[in-house]
Design goal:
The protein has about 220 residues and is α/β, with parallel strands linked by helices. It has one domain: Aldolase class I (TIM Barrel, Alpha-Beta Barrel). The protein contains 8 helices and 10 strands. Strands 1-2-3-4-5-6-7-8 form an 8-stranded parallel β-barrel, surrounded by 6 helices. Helix 3 runs parallel beside helix 4 and helix 5 runs parallel beside helix 6. The chain is globular, with a radius of gyration of 16 Å.
């Protein structure tokens, strides 16, 4: 896809209805709601995910971050939480996507690809035909405790830029983004959207001043 100079913004690790509305007021196009994970920040119970998702107005996408790998479990999560998008943070078998499409018509699928090296390019190209978007993050599937997101680390944006060039579906860029580096990330990668969690938080809570600065940098010339 062609590069995007002013990408959409997804605020991840939303923990309360108030955080959701703060993100929406500043212009978030999507909110990330984190279900059970082996590691990382922002995990909240499914009943709270459902409560937040029900309060988000229709133009804003609600993403369920799931570490489940079986389609039946993912379908059950979506039905319990009522989100509009499934963000699959781990690897799944190819038939999982087809099963989800059949069971959840109208629900968008986003596959996370963790950029640990050039092999991420092939991985992104292989999964792109099955999903509505690919999200590039900085986890590590081979770590002793699997890192599926929320690491606060950046990765090689040159690889991410190459992925964006090759794919015909939108690319979200995550991993260590902050107000200080997001403009550079946009310049180097040109993603459809940027995705941030820890980079707009202080003491685990969404920080309004940092959030405002992040949006200002995204919109800067």
């Amino acid at each position: 896809m062609i590069p995007t100079k002013r990408p959409r913004v997804k605020i991840c690790c939303i923990g309360t209805v108030d955080e959701a509305w703060m993100a929406i007021r500043y212009g978030a196009s999507a909110l990330g709601l984190v279900s059970e994970m082996p590691s990382g920040p922002g995990v909240i119970p499914e009943d709270l995910i459902a409560t937040i998702a029900a309060r988000v107005p229709p133009p804003v996408a609600t993403f369920l971050l799931t570490s489940k790998r079986e389609s039946a479990e993912i379908v059950a999560q979506q039905r319990r939480t009522g989100v509009k998008t499934i963000q699959i943070v781990d690897r799944v078998e190819p038939d999982c996507y087809a099963n989800l499409r059949r069971a959840l018509p109208g629900i968008s699928l986003v596959q996370v690809v963790h950029v640990t090296g050039p092999e991420a390019i092939e991985r992104a190209v292989s999964v792109a035909p099955h999903v509505d978007a690919v999200l590039l993050d900085s986890g590590n599937l081979t770590a002793p405790v699997r890192e599926l997101g929320g690491t606060g680390r950046t990765h090689d944006w040159a690889i991410s830029g190459r992925v964006r060039e090759l794919l015909e579906v939108p690319v979200f860029l995550a991993g260590g983004l902050t107000p200080e580096n997001v403009r550079q990330a946009i310049t180097e990668v040109g993603p459809f959207a940027v995705d941030v969690c820890s980079g707009v938080r202080k003491d685990g809570k969404l920080d309004e001043a940092t959030l405002a600065n992040f949006f200002a940098q995204v919109s800067a010339p």
